[in-house]
TrEMBL record, chain A:
Gene3D superfamilies in UniProt: 3.10.20.30, [2Fe-2S]-binding domain
Keyword presence, Iron: yes
Protein name, UniProt field: (2Fe-2S)-binding protein
Lipid biosynthesis as UniProt keyword: no
Pfam families: Fer2 (PF00111), Fer2_2 (PF01799)
Domain 2Fe-2S ferredoxin-type: 2-78
InterPro entries in UniProt: 2Fe-2S-bd, 2Fe-2S-bd_dom_sf, 2Fe-2S_ferredoxin-like_sf, 2Fe-2S_ferredoxin-type, Beta-grasp_dom_sf, Diverse_Oxidoreductases
Signal peptide, first to last residue: none
This protein's UniProt keywords: 2Fe-2S, Iron, Iron-sulfur, Metal-binding
Automatic annotation (TrEMBL), chain B:
Pfam family, one: MoCoBD_2
Residues of the Aldehyde oxidase/xanthine dehydrogenase a/b hammerhead domain: 218-295
Protein name according to UniProt: Molybdopterin cofactor-binding domain-containing protein
Residue ranges of coiled coil: none
InterPro entries reported in the protein's UniProt record: Ald_Oxase/Xan_DH_a/b, AldOxase/xan_DH_MoCoBD1, AldOxase/xan_DH_MoCoBD2, AldOxase/xan_DH_Mopterin-bd_sf, N-heterocyclic_Hydroxylase, OxRdtase_Mopterin-bd_su_IorB
Top-level taxon in the UniProt lineage: Bacteria
């Protein structure tokens, strides 16, 4: 066990942890967050994605220790003062979900994309969402939602 | 656990007890039904309702409850599986009860509360639960109208229901809740209450957004995976390396001392680990996998011999549709054709592996489960533990999309098996990715031989179907042997296939007008575990049937639309094809585009939704990809157009993925499709443009639509590919033509 300092959603906290424990389980158990989810444990599906220094990163394999000193932001932190993030709003308006298990990965990937490329084209959007598995086949709506979020920002 | 055996006399008092809220969904903040996810505070006052057992499907109270003042609670035995069923059922209830949509809330499958509606399967929820709720709501409204008329001593045609209140002469007005004055509507559903004329519908037929999406976009707890109970422990299972493997040796001392381990369970070849933290359970599981010794038998036949083995080992055929003349009629026709089609084993491949929470208290079991049927789960758990089903409460919760019989029931049973060793403590079990990929029951591989005769005018005169397939349903409906892990116990439960169901020949009989038809089914016990996957046999059958139709059209030298329409008599089917033809501007398409396009059609189960689709391919480097899919769906009365489109788009993409990429791979030792790299599915860059058009028929009853796209999309892709290649393709998947 080791003292690990994590900055999650703007707040730095210290935790006594197995330094090998992947961040995903720490977020779910220590922080009681539900957004990031287990999907494969292999960095293949993106269900566990969070924003790490504004990049979408999986959390199911990399140890919590690896994330020390980084700025971690989860889906729970996207809306502020009851105001949804533009991407969340666009996802709701496009009714971009079926079962919704992949939504965390899709939203986090979309937000990271827009923070890094404010005006992505459709190919860049697809590239960003490529890392996330959606078995319900809701992709057309995810793509449309991201395009609508861009249009609203203009 | 709340006593669920309370009898009728005591039921009235339940309304006065306010403390006991429902366990289950309502452990999470109550669902708020409003169209603006940023402004939910006004409606956050819904207090939930106290648990009251279900008194039978013929009682209004089993479906509609006005216990919470100012709110309507709708109950359904069907589960939300991501298909949007909650919203659709609430629309039906609100419409018929004459209440605002926003005050309606829903409770899905819970053996302590909801009606027994079996499994949420076969695209039956709107047709089944929807019509029950419609009837119950109409009846409840009728009851309230009668009560108000009695109160005011007026005739019932002098009063009307509007916006949650009854209005009477001289501006009299009383709300439903004032009128009930704390009582609930106990009466039977008589069938006498008038049903609202669809012309006056204001809620049904509207694209009301799904409220659960507003929670999911914020990452709020929603899934069974997110359930956290006080003192909850974490479990993992170690399944054998292959189906028949037996545990030979496991050095338990090397496991029990690992950090956080609370219990190692070894019962025959059923191995599970329980730990305080989730990651501790995962680490212990990895150690077990590393050191456990198993005795395995080979999986047979080898993958390459599957289809020849299928033909050799299958049972004698059952005549599903018999015709003594069929061979003769085909022989005498002007033109004949015979073709054989094949599809491999395919996977549900849920994004989130199965998860369930179970707790035993004083011989009573509670299971929170993503199952498609809480009552069948309750029955089967009763068989597994040899206890009365009344001692078991099953509470349905949303899981990751299942698309049929996936891991949901297995994981629920295993959670209960594990929790039994740790009484009074909730145990959460989640499968790992390899558990899910390798142990879910797959959609069966199928082989289909079709033979038909055509007359000189392009009319199909005769049609013979032969199907080779393993079963498409091994749902654990009361038999514990259907749980994989129950077969691995020291005292194992025997797995008996409950006969081969009609799933194998679902949709195999052509809807086309054909005088002489025969349908033969060869049941096959294949090497892999199989059960219901979205559409069951309809996927393989329609892939074959609609491919074959294109082959026949080309023999008849006819346009594929014209050939289909000429051979159909069903007007709704014809209308769907004609609409597709106009939406795709088929008449104006260049020969070049047509040569890269294919169409297909089916009415799901020959009784549910009608669906037709055109697929157009394009070149991408050396290979192909789907450029566009345009479809038309007719599901009778459409409850929620956007919901129908959403589910149809999803079915189209999923089917395209099955058709182009997917086949479960195995070798003699094990299933080697164990993750998303070894079993790839469609991702964002594979997604074509998609258009879905609805034909709404408000005057007709709603038809099940959730599985309508699966078969036709496969055939349309194959038809487009065959047109493009100038040769017919008979076997799925189509990876070699598409994958770069």
């Amino acid at each position: 066990m080791k003292k690990i300092t994590l900055k999650v959603n703007g707040k730095k906290t210290k935790h006594e942890l197995d330094p090998e424990e992947p961040l995903l389980y720490v977020l779910r158990e220590e922080f009681k967050l539900s957004g990031a989810k287990y999907g494969c444990g292999l960095h293949q599906c993106g269900a566990c994605m969070v924003l790490v220094d504004d990049q979408a990163e999986p959390t199911c394999m990399n140890s919590c220790e690896y994330f020390e000193g980084k700025d971690i932001e989860t889906i729970e932190h996207l809306s502020q003062n009851n105001k949804l993030h533009a991407v969340q709003k666009a996802f709701f308006e496009a009714q971009a979900a079926q079962c919704g298990y992949c939504l965390n990965g899709m939203l986090i990937s979309a937000v990271a994309l827009l923070r890094n490329i404010p005006q992505p084209n459709r190919l860049q959007i697809k590239d960003a969402l490529q890392q996330v598995i959606c078995r319900c086949g809701t992709h057309v709506r995810f793509i449309r939602a991201v395009e609508n979020a861009i249009a609203q920002k203009e | 656990m709340k006593d669920t055996t309370t009898n009728n006399q005591n039921r009235r008092s339940f309304l006065k007890t306010s403390g006991q809220l429902i366990i289950g969904f309502n452990l999470f903040p109550f669902l708020q039904f409003c169209t603006n996810p940023e402004n939910q505070t006004d409606l956050s006052t819904y207090p939930g309702i106290a648990i009251r057992p279900n008194a039978g499907k013929d009682i209004m109270d089993s479906w509609i409850r006005l216990d919470a003042k100012g709110f309507v609670t709708v109950l359904t035995g069907k589960q939300e599986l991501g298909q949007g069923i909650r919203t659709a059922l609430l629309q039906i209830a609100a419409e018929e009860l004459e209440v605002p949509f926003d005050i309606c809330h829903i409770i899905n499958g819970d053996t302590a509360q909801t009606a027994n509606e079996g499994y949420t399967a076969g695209s039956n929820s709107v047709e089944g639960s929807g019509s029950a709720i419609r009837q119950a709501a109409a009846e409840a409204k009728y009851y309230l109208i009668q009560e108000a008329a009695k109160l005011w001593q007026v005739n019932i045609d002098q009063v009307e229901a509007k916006n949650g209140a009854i209005l009477g002469p001289e501006n009299r007005k009383i709300s439903y809740w004032e009128l009930l004055n704390g009582e609930f509507i106990e009466g039977k559903i008589t069938g006498e209450a008038p049903i609202k004329n669809p012309k006056n519908h204001v809620i049904v037929g509207k694209s009301i957004p799904r409220a659960d999406i507003s929670k999911m976009i914020k990452g709020e707890p929603h899934f069974i995976h997110d359930l956290r109970l006080e003192g909850m422990l974490h479990a993992r299972v170690v399944h054998p390396p292959s189906y028949n493997a037996k545990l030979e040796a496991l050095d338990e001392s090397k496991i029990s001392q690992l950090p956080g381990v609370v219990k190692l369970i070894v019962d025959g070849s059923f191995v599970a680990i329980v730990a305080k933290r989730e990651y501790q359970a995962i680490k212990a599981r990895e150690k077990i996998i590393e050191i456990a010794k198993w005795e395995s038998t080979n999986i047979e036949p080898a993958m390459g011999d599957l289809f020849s083995n299928m033909k050799n080992k299958a049972s004698n055929p059952k005549e599903v549709e018999a015709s003594p003349t069929i061979n003769q009629t085909i022989k005498q026709a002007k033109n004949q054709l015979k073709s054989t089609y094949r599809k491999p084993y395919t996977m549900h491949g849920s994004t989130g592996p199965g998860c369930a929470v179970a707790q035993w208290d004083n011989q009573k079991l509670t299971v929170w489960s993503p199952t498609q049927g809480v009552y069948p789960l309750q029955n089967t758990l009763a068989d597994l533990f040899s206890i009365e089903k009344e001692s078991i409460r099953c509470i349905g919760m949303p899981g990751s999309g299942c698309y049929g019989h996936n891991s949901a029931d297995d994981v629920s049973a295993e959670a209960a098996m594990i929790a039994r060793h740790l009484p009074n403590q909730p145990v959460r079990l989640q499968w790992m990715r390899d558990n899910e990929h390798r142990w879910e029951p797959y959609g069966s591989a199928m082989q289909l031989t079709l033979e038909a005769g055509l007359d000189q005018n392009g009319n199909i005169t005769s049609w013979k179907t032969e199907i080779w397939s393993d079963t498409h349903s091994t749902r654990p409906n009361g038999n514990a042997g259907h749980y994989v892990s129950a077969r691995h116990l020291a005292k194992p439960f025997e797995f008996k296939k409950g006969g081969f169901s009609g799933g194998s020949y679902r949709n195999a009989s052509p809807l086309y007008e054909i005088t002489d038809k025969a349908l033969l089914l060869y049941d096959y016990e294949g090497p892999l575990r199989t059960s219901a996957l979205r559409g069951l046999g309809a996927y393989g059958n329609i892939f074959a049937l609609e491919s074959f139709i294109d082959e026949l059209a080309s023999i008849a030298k006819m346009d594929p639309f014209d050939f289909r329409i000429q051979n159909l008599k069903n007007n709704r089917a014809i209308e769907v094809l004609k609409t597709l033809k106009s939406k795709t501007e088929w008449e104006n398409l260049s020969e070049r585009t047509k040569s890269k396009s294919g169409i297909a059609f089916a009415q799901y189960k020959n009784s549910a939704a009608y669906f037709a689709v055109m697929v157009t391919l394009e070149n991408e480097g050396e290979k192909l990809k789907i450029k566009k899919m345009i479809s038309v769906i007719e599901a009778g009365q459409c409850i929620n157009p956007d919901g129908l489109i959403n589910q149809t788009e999803g079915g189209m993409i999923q089917s395209a993925s099955w058709t182009i990429l997917e086949a479960v791979q195995y070798n003699e030792k094990e299933i080697i499709s164990k993750d998303w790299n070894s079993y790839p599915i469609f991702r964002a860059k594979d997604i074509p443009d998609i258009e879905v058009h609805i034909i709404n028929r408000p005057e007709e009853k709603p038809l099940g639509a959730g599985e309508a796209a699966q078969g036709p999309v496969a055939a349309a892709i194959v038809n487009a590919l065959s047109n493009h290649l100038g040769k017919r393709i008979y076997e799925l998947p189509l990876r070699e033509y598409f994958e770069n």
